[in-house]
Amino acid sequence: MVEAVVALAVEKLGGLLIEEFGYAVRRTHVRSEVEWIQRELIRIKCFLKDADVKQKGDDRVKNWVRDIRDVSYQVEDAIDTFIMIKSTSLSRRAGIIKRYVCCFSFLLNELALQHKLGRDIRGIKVKISDISASRITYGIENIGGGGGEGSSYVFEKLRERRRSSPRMDDHDVIGFDEDMNMLVARSLDQEKHRCVISIVGMGGLGKTTLAKKVYNSTSVKRHFDFCAWVYVSQDYRGRELLNEIAGKILRIEKGKLSMMSREHIEERVSKVLNKKRYLIVLDDIWETEVWDDLKTLFPDVMNGSRVLFTTRNRDVAMHADPRSSTHDLHFLNQTQSRELFLKKAFPMEDNSLTCPPELETLATQIVAKCGGLPLAIVIIGGLLSRKKKTPNVWLRVLQSIRWQLNNDPGQLMEILALSYNDLPFYLKPCFLYFGLFPEDLEIPVGKLILLWMAEGFVQQRGEESIEDVAEDFLEELVDRSMIQVAEKRYNGKIKTCRIHDLLRDLAMSEAKDCKFLEILDSTNIDTSVTTRAARRISVHSSLKEYLKLRHPNPHFRSMLSFSRVQESLWRDQWKLLFMSLKLLRVLDLECAQIQVLPKEIRELVHLRYLGLKGTGLQRLPSSINYFSNLQTLDIRGSKVSRFSVQLWEMPGLRHIYLEKTSIVGHPPVHVSAMHLQTLSRVSIYGNDWILGLLEKLTNLRKLGIHGYFASQTEALSRCLVKLSNLQNLELKGTEPILEPTMKLILNQPSIDKLHLSGPLEKLPRPQEIQPNLTKIILEESRLVQDIFVTLEKLPNLKILKLLANSFLGKEMTCSVSGFPKLHGLELSFLDNLEEWRVDDGAMPSLQNLIINGCDKLKKVPAGFQYLRALRELFLFNMPGEFAAWIKGDDSYKIQHIPSIVMR
Prior knowledge:
The model is unreliable at 94-102 and 146-151 (pLDDT under 50). Helix content is 39%, strand content 14%. It has 903 residues and is an alpha/beta fold.
């Protein structure tokens, strides 16, 4: 993590030299000292590659890393404070003092600021010199190399503890039968090519255990001429591993192998395996280079040989064999978790797997805390097997379960920490950020990405947008089994994600050690939160509790509120909050009740993310344009009806989420907000900014407009043609959208999601609609023609929602081959719909169907039994006759659907 902190400090210094007040700094001696600090930090950064790992076993390294981190934070504080004071002093004087007095005052203030910055920089320079010299004093000159004896011993010990072998005890294996059958089938199938089969999942999930079951399967042993098990580990040692593989295949002693050249060994191993159908298990692979080094050993002679991987990293698996799908290992369900727990907690009992009634509730709660992770269940079950079987004893274990897992000799947290230590430095702050979110929360990915951007964790890569880079970062964390996908969007992108409780504990532990974050909740409402100089705070209790702290932390760069109660603060309380947090980059006050922001908020000049969703805010301050760095503004669910035209003069803006808010005033000739990608739910009632301005926002990806479209049809049409990056369009209004406008909208090739709310004159013919549309939402369209006749011809449509009064007809038909890729369909409050027919072969990919409030639809649609891919059916607010048919004569039409929900 310290590598990322230093990288941010170096970036800050570069910004000071190049962008921020370059002229002022060039005029003073401060510049040379800033350049020296930047160069020295870059040199130090080269030694930090493995610092996070090595400091665990060596206090000398730990202290040195701490000093580097603290001085990097000090660099950041000095620069941010300099910029904040200068920016706020300029804004206060503007328009108050006469020009010549203002200039004189400015020069005096400039000199004072430079003097203070120079003093801070000189102090930092002295500290960095001491830190650089201390590497020799501490005897850690080679921190970037092999590490000290302490760290080597710690990690060698952990490596040996984790070393696997194909021998196993079936007593601890629960829930792998289906996985084993699938993997055995893949190992024995008719595919002649040598395939790499990969078991992928987070640490402690049982990948090695499952691989052992496959390896020891009787049918597998009988099928393959030769089988070998090889433990790789995170500490990959190329020649040592080669010798181990060769020893098992060639039956040659290690001493003799060490005297042979690598080429000679590879040739002999490959020659032997050329004559055999083999199965080689490579357990615990971390890097793609392992396969690159070893793949020549395993020839493909088209005899059905297999290589079986276990890895936490999907990229490693896909790199080895892109043709072969990975086998993703999942958490144990509640039943499986309970069974494994009882086996471990009551090892001497019979096979009945019963729990004493007085321990039943506690057992359920303990199992739930393990989150389906087999290793955690085994450790806690084993611990309880050695303790008295009484409620008091078990309750104490439940209350300290995280401590038990952290301090268990089985080293669960150290095993999980291997994944964190393996992260590249740019992903470590992204992972630690998950510690800010409450336990078990499904985290919206869109918001998470914007927060990462505001924090400065994500940098642009060439022409790729920062948002896309951040999305790649999240995908990489998912592929490394650090983060779980909770829900995906219609286009395959991640919509929400979550983190396992134990990995969240790891994130919080690592983050607190490096002053990355603090959590304020009911367990720590005291002054300790402010004494650690953390950079971020997440409020899980209430903002009022934060304000009670006697010494607010001025170092906070982020404040996120997750209070579960709607709270309202007085104006003076909000003023106190903002006055104490002047270096904030992120301020998220979602659902906190605030009507008017105090003027003091304008001093938060570093602010990049301002989240005021659901706050009830009535108006934004006129000083909103002071936020020149602001990237994201979210006022959804607020009462703000008007927004100043100054919006267009904020150069950093990328995402604006409004609530039917009008932008008033004449638009400027020159628009600064050229990076804007999201302009959502903006009202155009009585506005004239569309023509001449909207067409300039060529980076827009998402646009949501509310208003009278009839009066702005021509302007809107002209602008949409020029928005070549627009992917998501939402139009809501009460006036009809005429057919020419509909044709233009539906023929924009970049748009893949379309939400239209309001009367439509008619839908164009299928050939007049571009084929890239993947999601369509219609409501209040008041169409009489059968919508399906047109939309079922769209080749890539995946999601279709026909909401209230979108269709006023009585009959709909899905014809053969219609909707070839449709995955989700919703029909809600179609008041006139009486009959719906589904032909055999229609909607072959439909998996999710919602029928809601269609009062005149009395029977299950004819042909429903043909929807063979359907997995989930939701029936809400349907008439009694419909429910009767479902349970009676029409039951055969839905008996193939695994999940049916009615209410």
